[in-house]
Amino acid sequence: MTLLLALLSTVIWRGDYETGDLSQWSRVDGLASMLTVANSPVHQGNYALRVELHQGQVSSSGTRNELELGGYPFVEGDEYWYAWSTYFPTTFPSNNTWQVFTQWHHSGCCGSPPLEFDVIGESIEINHNGSQMLWKAPLVRGVWHDFVIHIKWSVNGWIELWYDGQKALDQTSVPTINAGQYNYLKQGLYWNASITSVGVLYHDRTIIGTTMADVAPELLPPPPDAGTPDAGPADAGSPDPDAGVIVDPAPPPAPDPAPVAQTPPSAPPATPVAKTTVGFPSGGCSHTGRGTMIAFAVLMLLVFAVRRRRS
Predict the structure, then answer these.
(1) Domain 2-219 has CATH 1.10.10.10
(2) Do the Cβ atoms of 151 and 79 come closer than 8 Å?
(3) 231 C-beta neighbours (distance < 10 Å), count
(4) What is the Cα–Cα distance from 219 to 162, expressed in whole angstroms?
(5) What is the mean pLDDT of the chain?
(6) Fewer CB atoms inside 10 Å of the end CB: C or N, the chain?
(7) Share above pLDDT 70 across residues of the chain, in percent, rounded to a whole number
(8) How many Å apart are CA 177 and CA 183, to the nearest integer?
């Protein structure tokens, strides 16, 4: 659905001041010296519109300095999307009466427009015919505010609003056009002639389109979640978040090697143990015949020695 809307989208007109001048608009309703292109603050690109208004600066029977978009009449049955951004400096005045900063004026000569964005006191409001309030929010200064409005132009019309990126007003029925007339866009600052303070504000990136994708693609819902890819079997490996590559699975453990026959180490030579013959003390002769012969020889020597001494 989002892709289809993007393909069917058509930007009708763009007023972002990136030309460096006011040439995107049709005419100045007020003092051109009070409607200047500035390079700060800006909401996008390099330029925005700076608007200044003083008491007594009268144009088209009102105290105003506005830009007007001609050549784009909005008639019965039209349906369009509009987006722009406005910055209220910290010095923007608080007055308990109307200060119009964007309006769709009717082609008739008199009366309040069918739709207008006002600052009244410390509030931002949408009003119908200057009397029926359709929406309001606190005025916050010193930051850019984003407005996106979807309008069905009809005596049986409706509007819906997004403010600072959030849906602020569901589709609300209201006559958005006067029977037999058309509307046109004006932007700047237009207020009650009784206001004596000096007003300064900025506008940027005004766009008209046929879809939300034209004017505020950032508000489109994200594409549906395609789901998390199948991680595969448990042993198929896992992405390494640090390296950004797929890590090969760990190889299965190798089988234990077959036992190898070991030759036992040679035993050290045994220490000989002396044999003992029963009847002889340890260390005695080991052969009985030899001992008898020695004893007999000793005896004969002793007899011989005695006989020699007597003779």
Answers:
(1) no
(2) yes
(3) 10
(4) 9
(5) 82
(6) C
(7) 69
(8) 7
Whole-number Å distance between alpha carbons of 134 and 118 = 11
What per-residue confidence (pLDDT) applies to 277? Answer: 36
The reported pTM is: 0.71
**Residue 45 pLDDT exceeds 70:** yes
In the chain, domain spans: 2-219
Phi, psi of 263 (to 5 degrees): -85, 120
* Amino acid code (one letter) for 144: W
Alpha helices in 176-287 (DSSP H): 212-215
In the chain, % helix, strand, coil (3-state, to 5) comes to: 15, 35, 50
CA gap 137, 129 in Å, rounded: 19
Confidence band, pLDDT 50/70/90 cuts, at residue 109: confident
Structure tokens at 59: 């144009």
CB 133 within 8 A of CB 206: no
